[in-house]
Amino acid sequence: MKKRLIAFSLVLMLILTCFSPIAANAATLTWPVLRLNSTGANVTALQYMLNYYGYPVTVNGTFNQSTVNYVKSFQQAEGLSNDGVVGTNTWTALTDVLQRSSSYNANLTRAIQYLLNNKFGYSLTVNGVFNSATDAAVRSFQTSMGLTSDGIVGPNTWNNLIAASSAFNATQFWEDRADDGWVSPVGYTPGAITNGAKFNSSRDSGSRVHAGTDFYVSNNYRSYYLNHNNSLTALDTYAKTFKVRAMYDGVVVQISTNFYRGTKALAIEHADGTVARYGEIGILSGITVGTIVETGEEIGWIAYHNDVNTSNCDGVHMLHLEVYLGNSPEAIASGNPRFAASTALTNTTSHSYYYANVPSSLSPAHYERRADLIDSTGARNLPLN
Prior knowledge:
Blueprint: H1 5-17, H2 41-52, H3 65-77, H4 88-94, H5 106-120, H6 132-144, H7 155-163, H8 170-179, E1 202-203, E2 208-209, E3 213-216, H9 221-227, H10 232-239, E4 243-245, E5 250-260, E6 263-270, E7 275-283, E8 292-293, E9 298-302, E10 318-324, H11 329-333, E11 373-374
Antiparallel strand pairs: 1-2, 3-10, 4-9, 5-6, 5-8, 6-7, 7-9, 7-10, 10-11
Helix pairs in contact: 2-5, 5-6
């Protein structure tokens, strides 16, 4: 494996200096305008804020006449034009700086928790307590928006909570990655995706769901083994023709030597902070934790399962691909969000996910993975060359 000093310096610089996993514009966003008959999460947050300032409006997500009246009262008290319309000046007056351990801010905290849950896919309890879970979610949100991840909800964080639009969009994520030059993780045309290979498909009788997307090898390894004099040596040579590649520039941060049925896995943190785990593979000699890889560089192959020489094996083999944004609370709490990716990608206790939702038909199933897991299906649309 070639060592590339320039590439290493570039990636190391990105690892040490870039805190956001997705390029984001941290400039002030245009505040939304709310008025009579507006509805939605921002209206609910507004009503929580008004309650914080002593205006006991009912929190129902509808900008009704009662809300208009309380907004006018607040505006008059703040020396603003009391027109009952919430725009830039009113939003600015409503927002207050919050951080963990603040004890006076229950309704403002509820506003934050509600916005994180209903606009950005978090799973907090809306209880008005700025606890460790809320702190971690705020830091995660700040990272994803390109803000300083300090857990303090100041003007910029309020602005992004209220003015940014909705939740993570996996389709847009993969379209952006294709535009950035990412390539398919496999050097072959994968077989058609089946229900069992899909992200979110049921596992273990519905107790958990599939955390990755599978890239099938069209040919059956078991049949190849049987048709070549039961030779594992021949099968090994054949398997190495189904190459696995780095989707983008990055550094290897984790290697698992026993991932599934004798196969291996490795995780690569890309230069943009995202993390991909390539499972059910064999790994090229010379690749270790810390190895720098480039876009499209071969890192391994689709390995055969250790029971391929028995009738227990159906012969179906694949790349199992998982992708993470790189901004989970576990990573942030460690103080080193980049290389913390090398730990706890598998988290059997996690039931809260920021960017991926378990189908309601399978609830309370979960992925058994870290909270920043995303839908990796879009990687199937990346170019093969």
